[in-house]
Specification:
- This protein is α/β, with parallel strands linked by helices and 219 residues long.
- It folds into two domains: 116 residues, 3-Layer(aba) Sandwich (Rossmann fold); 85 residues, 2-Layer Sandwich (Alpha-Beta Plaits), CATH 3.30.70.1450.
- 35% of the residues lie in helices and 26% in strands.
- A six-stranded parallel sheet has the order 3-2-1-4-5-6, with helices on both faces.
- The termini are far apart.
């Protein structure tokens, strides 16, 4: 079944989220009080509407209780508006409300008014980008919770031609290879522990965050 997502606030984060979800087949209702941003989003979302999401009657017309997910992506310009909007979404019975916070205090308030999940895009991007700066082999990194990370990384030259059995990565570094990305266009393959790795291979691994720098330094 197609996911129905309500996105309120079409700044850089909200607009990017709306575009990506639309490209992946979700039905996106995009909302902002600025006409130029609504017009921009209308080119790729299911529907784009110009309203003030802190107005209870206007927000109610969007029927948030019928959406699979509601994202309050209102940015730095109005923390008060994001708090009011998040509280109204919960009051109206939205089944899953995601709020965007700008700092720790904002996060706590959004949690107190009922957000099911609070994201801090700038903080999370900064953390991931720092990992990439310090570990040049890291291509992408996603936290899974409880200090587990899903990381995609290019292989070190010393790994080329060796098998995963020979490298013994779980024993030496505490990482588990769950897939190998290979070729152009790339294919994600189940790892063969006895097959030699190729120069352009990328490993997709699950590990603790601290294991990644040990792996990139120690192979």
């Amino acid at each position: 079944m197609t996911q129905q997502v309500l996105i309120i606030g079409l700044g850089q984060f909200g607009m990017s989220l709306a575009r990506t979800l639309s490209e992946k087949g979700a039905e996106v209702l995009a909302v902002d009080r600025r006409k130029n941003l609504v017009d921009e989003a209308a080119a790729f979302v299911t529907e784009a509407v110009m309203i003030d999401a802190t107005d209870e009657s206007e927000l109610a017309r969007l029927q948030p209780a019928r959406r699979d997910c509601s994202v309050c992506a209102i940015g730095d310009d109005s923390k008060e508006a994001s708090i009011i909007c998040t509280a109204l979404l919960r009051q109206m019975g939205a089944p899953w409300v995601i709020g965007r916070a700008n700092n720790a205090m904002h996060r706590r308030i959004l949690q107190l008014v009922g957000a099911h999940l609070v994201v801090t895009p700038e903080e999370e991007f900064g953390r991931r980008f720092a990992n990439r700066l310090l570990n040049r082999q890291v291509i992408s990194d996603m936290p899974l919770g409880d200090d587990l990370h899903l990381t995609e990384m290019s292989i070190h030259s010393s790994m080329i031609g060796k098998s995963l059995v020979e490298l013994a990565l779980p024993r030496r570094f505490g990482v588990m290879v769950v897939a190998v990305r290979r070729g152009a266009p790339s294919r994600v393959l189940q790892p063969d522990p006895h097959a030699p790795l190729e120069a352009d291979d990328r490993l997709i691994i699950v590990s603790s965050e601290s294991a990644i720098p040990k792996l990139t330094r120690g192979v």
